[in-house]
Design goal:
Residues 16-236 form the Glutamine amidotransferase type-2 domain. With 475 residues, the chain is an alpha+beta fold. The protein has 2 domains: 13-250, Aminohydrolase, N-terminal nucleophile (Ntn) domain (Glutamine Phosphoribosylpyrophosphate, subunit 1, domain 1, 4-Layer Sandwich), CATH 3.60.20; 270-446, Rossmann fold, CATH 3.40.50. Bound molecules: iron/sulfur cluster. The site of iron/sulfur cluster has 12 residues, from helix 8 and helix 18.
Length: 475
């Protein structure tokens, strides 16, 4: 990913959610519902490919899942008991239909559909080499690199070719792939991006980025796909391959702080509980005299609840979020960014007037959104505004599937905490410490969590080699 600046709300965005279904009637409907539950992971496009035992069917479109899959007649064309689906958040190259996943290709061994969440850090390097060998790319997605690697592999079976391709790519990814004979789920060796396995009611199987996608269809959580594991699901059940040997997990800690839905369970931790506990730790570390604790909705809510409970200061919904703000028409100009914040958040003045307010938010990226929210809260009559952030300062871009601005655009990369406080106009500003963050995730302290998570956007310690940092392509 080139860290271009697609963000319109001043927050980093997740890029993509995936689902896979095997052996379930109405596989397309289950996949669509799963994608709907994963809508927070990508809002620009969605796609589903199914297989009915004889042939593949597909439908893709730009927009939200509910719009792309709203036509009952079209849904009826997505036949079969197996499906994979994808929600896309594009970072570069614009939102083009040809980039919308899953990608489908016909090989000498038959058809294959593939979708992935995350970014390959050597996609540009591999792509250049593949183009030199005569491969003709149809899209700018990293997923197509996988497709071409499979196509040129000298191995005989699709599984061997997939393993061969997986061994050549570097990056953070969760892949779902569908053939006429099986469904595949693959997590990168460090398991940076999530992928979970569930059982649907009538005996079928489901893969998804988060457990909230299982919940929406009443599927039962079975287990996480392990880092570096390839699961192969067919009518006989599940097999597991370990193409990379033994690996050490480095799960993305930002999934807990911001990206995942709070009702999801990731790597056996409740996202909601983790966020609440971060709020508790924040209150212990950086408590301040105040009258109300106010979350910046939505992701700041659980941490604000934890902060309020620990501090004994009342929790108030002093900011109301409008959930019906469309994104497609908000172009990222400065003028529209200003407008966007007011469209998305409004101050609930009676809860703020004459009060000393602690605002709890999940992160500060550029600082522009924070500044506007603080100004809005003051304009509503708050006498003091203190900001508490449930992540450490975001000082580095993510190259593993999250759209963040380049380093020079990150407020924390160029400002001290005191300077940041001045820039966003608060009376005080504090971030959760690494010890506090990892205590909230069940560890004794930072040292106890050492080497278990990716926290590169806070530390700059990138656990996966950034082979082609420049010119990286879209997931
Ligand atoms: S750099 Fe940050 S956002 Fe990206 S994978 Fe690592 S922790 Fe997650």
């Amino acid at each position: 990913m080139t860290s271009t600046t697609r963000e319109t709300s001043g927050r980093p965005y997740e890029e993509c959610g995936v689902v896979g279904i095997w052996g379930a009637p109405d596989a397309a409907a289950l996949a669509a519902l799963g994608l709907h539950a994963l809508q927070h992971r990508g809002q620009e496009a969605a796609g589903i490919v199914t297989h009915d035992g004889e042939r593949f069917w597909q439908h893709k479109g730009l927009g939200l899942v509910g719009d792309v899959f709203s036509d009952a007649r079209m849904m009826g064309t997505l036949k079969g008991k197996s499906a994979i689906g994808h929600n896309r958040y594009a970072t570069t190259g614009g939102t083009l239909l040809r980039n919308v996943q899953p990608l489908y290709a016909d090989f000498e061994f038959g058809g294959l559909a593939v979708a992935h969440n995350g970014n390959l850090t050597n996609a540009a390097t591999l792509r250049r080499a593949l183009v030199k060998r005569g491969c003709l790319f149809q899209s700018t997605t990293d997923t197509e690199v996988f497709v071409h690697l499979i196509a040129i592999s000298l191995y005989a079976t699709v599984l061997e070719r997939l393993v061969d391709a997986a061994k050549q790519v570097k990056g953070a990814y969760s892949v779902v792939a569908l053939t006429p004979d099986f469904l595949i789920g693959l997590r990168d060796p460090l398991g940076v991006r999530p992928l979970i396995l569930g059982r649907v009611a009538d005996g079928g199987w489901m893969l998804a980025s988060e457990t909230c996608a299982l919940d929406i269809v009443g599927a039962e959580f079975v287990r996480n796909v392990e880092p570096g594991e390839m699961v192969i699901i067919d009518d006989e059940g599940i097999r597991s391959l370990r193409p990379f040997g033994k690996t050490s997990p480095r799960f993305c800690v930002f999934e807990y702080i911001y990206f995942a839905r709070p009702d999801s369970i990731l790597e056996d931790h409740s996202v909601y509980e983790a966020r609440k506990q971060i709020g508790v730790e924040l209150a212990r570390e950086s408590g301040v005299e105040a009258d109300v604790i106010v979350p910046v909705p939505d992701s700041g809510v659980p941490s604000a609840m934890g902060y309020a409970a620990e501090s004994g200061i009342p929790f108030e919904m002093g900011i109301i979020r409008n959930h019906y703000v469309g994104r497609t028409f908000i172009e990222p100009t400065d003028q529209i960014r200003n407008l966007g914040v007011r469209m998305k958040h409004s101050a609930n003045a009676p809860a703020l007037r004459g009060k000393r307010v602690v605002l709890v938010d999940d992160s500060i990226v550029r600082g522009t959104t924070s500044r506007k929210i603080v100004d809005m809260v003051r304009a509503a009559g708050a006498t003091e505004v203190h900001m508490r952030i449930s992540s450490p300062p975001t000082r580095h871009p993510c190259f593993y599937g999250i759209d963040t601005p380049e380093e020079s655009q990150l407020l924390a990369a160029t400002h001290s905490v005191a300077q940041m406080a001045e820039a966003i106009g608060v009376d005080s500003l504090a971030f959760i410490s690494f010890d506090g963050l990892y205590r909230a995730l069940g560890h004794d302290d930072r040292a106890d969590a050492e080497g278990r998570y990716c926290d590169a956007c806070f530390t700059g310690d990138y656990p996966i080699e950034l082979v082609d940092k420049e010119g990286h392509l879209v997931s």
